[in-house]
């Protein structure tokens, strides 16, 4: 296989195709500390894209309860187990460099009548049927491990904790679905890196379903072709009637009432790394503050979805899920810098894509100590700008209170 550089792994890796990168890349950050599992994003996507015949079990966006939930069921447990078995080694990091095998490298070690380009599996029909199974489940049966897989895979009973993991297609830099498709029906758009399936070329072999480690490519039996999240690209292009001609966030992003989501477009270098764009909020959160981390970077797909880890979850679990940067990310989030606190206010303040932010300093309003460190709160104003430099949103760190006048009996 050709060798490509994966900056999330800190090294070069095998991939079936030579590296090629778009001008800009669709990317997003989810703050898992805020997600309330309301499924508003899920239903926004469902009512827009997957409400037709043959799409009954398609949930391009879903929110699952970790550690026990998943859609399809057991998707991460199964691929992590397969990865270690196929590669013959554990998934380990040394000084920020991934030392184990990716799903592409592990596939090279597999031999047989039907060799794979990408390590993967096809979920059963049963595993696709229950998008909300184990929702709000923090522990197993008292005194017993939680048996949640027909093959006997289990998780131990633990102290009460769980968190909601919102997921959609990561529009990866090195997509597993694209690598596996024998028809070359899957491609990344050169203008924004959104991964799409050419419905005319697709023959429904389901190699994309098998290869995507996040299981976000799905087969539609009524048309006998595969489908997946299209990142609401008419909105991103500014061609949706609602956009007013400017780039707009996807339906799932714009509908989030928990204010966990921020979507953007980042510029890329020729080697696939992110070009410096210091005041792009996505760039800042991922590259400068380093508070947002990729989901299962060890798979090797270089996903473009990033997550601020939940601070109450055991670190070992989070490190397996988000890589070695978990400790630093949580430390930064628990006692945020003045700039980080301001940027976090941009989440869900507008449904237009913010390309640049500016902070106007305000007065100090509060002082305290957080985990042994002094912390000062400033009522700064953060301003978000669009692609053309127009102001999209202006908000303050300290949100104002609005008291309704008691002018009538039904006032609440």
Question: What does this 3D model show about the protein?
Answer:
By secondary structure, this protein is of the alpha+beta class. The chain has a single domain, classed as Alpha-Beta Plaits (2-Layer Sandwich). 20% of the residues lie in helices and 22% in strands. The chain contains twelve helices and 21 strands. It has a four-stranded mixed β-sheet. A three-stranded antiparallel β-sheet has the order 17-20-21, covered by helices on one side. It has a two-stranded antiparallel ribbon with strand order 1-2. The chain is globular.
Query: Which residues form runs of ≥5 with pLDDT under 50?
Result: none
Beta-strand level of the residues, as a percent range? Answer: 15-25%
Rg: 22 Å
What's the domain count?
Answer: 1
Instruction: Report the count of strand segments.
Output: 21
Tally of separate helices: 12
* Spatial strand order of the main sheet: 14-3-16-15
Q: What can be said about the biggest beta sheet?
A: 4 strands, mixed
The helix content is 10-25%
CATH class: Alpha Beta
CATH architecture level-2 label: 2-Layer Sandwich
Shape estimate: globular
What's the end-to-end separation, in Å?
65 Å
Structural class: alpha+beta
Reported by name, the CATH topology is Alpha-Beta Plaits
Question: Average pLDDT across residues?
Answer: 92
